[in-house]
Amino acid sequence: MSLKRRQFLLFSSLSSLAAVLYACKSYSRQINPKLGKKDLLLRFVSVADTGTGAKGQYDVAQAMTNYHSKNPYDLIVLAGDNIYNNGEIEKIGEVFERPYAALLKQNVKFQACLGNHDIRTANGEKQLEYPGFNMKGRYYTFSRGLVQFFALDTNGNADWKNQLSWLEQELSRSKATWKVVFGHHPIYASGAYGSNPNFIQTFTPLFQKYGVQLYINGHEHHYERTRAINGTTYLICGAGAGNRPVGKNEWTQYSTSNLSFAAYEVYADKIEISAIGIDNRVFDRGIIPLKST
Description:
293 residues; alpha/beta; 7 helices; 2 domains
C-alpha cells in the first residue's frame, strides 16, 4: 500500500473518531449524569404529614427509596407535621432519621417547613435548629438552578405581616424560570378541612401577579392535584404516613387517599409531576407548562 493511501486511511479514521467524540460530547452536555434524562434540569420529590414512625411512614419512605434507585434525586420538600404529635425533637430518630436512613446516607437533602403539630412544643424552635431539616427560618427561600423555592409558615400564629411582605419582595425580584411555594396548610383542598377562603384571597392574586407555577402542601392526608388556577397548580402530598378520605371539586384534576409521595421532573419548558404509591406505581401524571393558563 502506498504512503499516500495509508495517510488517507489514517486521516479518514481520525476524522471519523473526532466526529464520534464530538457527538458524544455534545450529547453529554444535554444530560445530567445524576439524573439520566436528556434536558432534565432537576428532579425532586415532596411529602408531608410524615412524622409518625409507624408502618405507613416506612412504607412511603421505602417507595421513595425505590424511586431514588431508578430516578436519582437529591432534594425532598417536607411540607410540615414532621414530628407527631407535638413536635418533640426528642423523637427525631424515630420519626425522621430511621425511616429515611437510606436516603440520608445518599446525601438526599430535606427542606422542611413547620406544620401545626410541629409548633406545639417550643413553637417549633427546636426543629428550626435541627440541621436535617435545613430550615433557614420560619420562612425562607433557596434555589436549585432555574427553580426558586419559597418555604412558608402557614400556621395561625405565624408572623403574617412580615412574612407576606417578605414573600412579595422575594417574588418580585426573583429571576427564576420556575417559582415553587410550599407550606403546610392547603389553599385549595377537597378533604377533611377543605379550601381556605382567606388563603385563596391572600395567595391566589399574589401567585398570579408574580408567576408562581406550583404550590405544594400537606395537612390534608391525601393526594390532590388541581388544574391550573390563574396559572398556579396546587398539589397536596399529605398522605406520607397516614390517609383520610378525599372528594373532588370542579378544579380537581386528580385526587385519592392512597399513601404516596409526589415526584417532579423540571425541564426548561415544563414540570412533569408523578404521584407514586407504596406499590411503586405511578397513579397520576400531570404537566405544568412554562406558561400555565
